[in-house]
C-alpha cells in the first residue's frame, strides 16, 4: 500500500491529502514570506517519513540547511547551477537504473507500485520513491540557457520519464514566466501558488486569484486542483525528529516488539487477528509493511512473514531517540494550521 501526503485544509476545513502514487509532479510559486519554503519542507519531511530518497536543489541554502548530510540524500544538496545540473542527471541515471530493473521483472511492470508488489513476492526489497525538489527553478533556467536549453530539455525528460519510476518532481520559484511554465506545465499534476509579486506571475501558474492573498495569511495558497488551501505549518526543528517516530505509530511499535518477543519475529494475519486486530486492518498492515521491505516471507518456515532487519533497525533507532522525541499517537507529520 501507499503512504499519503498531507497538504493542508480547504475552506470547509477538510484535510487535503493524496497518496504518493497519485501526487505526481508539482509546480510551486511564492514570494519571500508567503509560505513556499515551509511547504517544500513539509513535502520533504513527509517523503523522509515514507522512506523516500531526496535530491534537493537549494541555491541560496536557506530552504533545506537542516538536511545537509541527511542519510536520505541521493547526492549532496545542490547550491550552484552546475550542481543542479548534476542532480538532474543523477535523477535521470536513477530512472535508467530502474528501467533496467523493470525489464528484468516478470509481467513488465508499468509503475513503482506494480514493480514493488512483484519484487516483494520474489523475496527482495522494494524500491523507494525519489523526491526531487528544484527550488529557484526560474533562476536556474535563466542561468543555464533558458527554456530551450539543454538543461530545460533534460528536466523535461525527467518529468515525463520519472513518474513511472516513482520519481516526484517539484518545480519551485518565487515566480514563473509563461515561457518557463510552458516547458513543464503539461507534466505537473497540480499548481500551488502562494502570494506572488504580480498578476502576470499568478496567471502563468493558472491561479490568478493568488494575487489577492493578503500578507497576513502566510501558508494560504491558490491551487488549480483543490481551490484555496491553507497549507500545514512545519516547524524546522521537527526535522531533528523525523524518522522512526514518523514512520511507526506507538501502537505499531508495540506490535513489532510483541512479535519479536512472543513469536520470534513472525507477523502473520492470523497472528494479528488473534491479538485483537480486525482482519481487514491486519491484512492492510501486513501488505503495506511487506511492500516497504519490513516483512518478508521465509521459505524455510512455510512462507510465513517475518520481520526483516530493516524494520528491526527502525525500531532500534526509535528506542535510541525516544528520550528526545515528544509523544506521538499516530505519527503526525504536520502541525495545525493555527501555528502559522
Report the order of strands and helices: EEHEHEHHEHHEHEHEEHHHHEEH
Domain count: the total is 2
State the separation between the terminal residues, measured CA to CA: 32 Å
**Poorly predicted parts:** 321-339
Fourth CATH level, the homologous superfamily of the largest domain = P-loop containing nucleotide triphosphate hydrolases
- The secondary-structure class comes to alpha/beta
**Count of DSSP strands:** 11
Outline, from the CA principal axes?
globular
Adjacency order of strands in the biggest sheet: 2-1-9-8-7-3-6-5-4
Measured by DSSP, the beta-strand proportion falls in: 15-25%
Helical content stands at: 25-40%
- CATH structural class of the largest domain: Alpha Beta
Q: What is the gyration radius calculated from CA atoms?
A: 21 Å
CATH fold naming of the largest domain? Rossmann fold
GO molecular function: ATP binding; DNA binding
Keywords: ATP-binding, Nucleotide-binding
InterPro entries: FtsK/SpoIIIE/SftA, FtsK_dom, P-loop_NTPase
Organism: Bellilinea caldifistulae
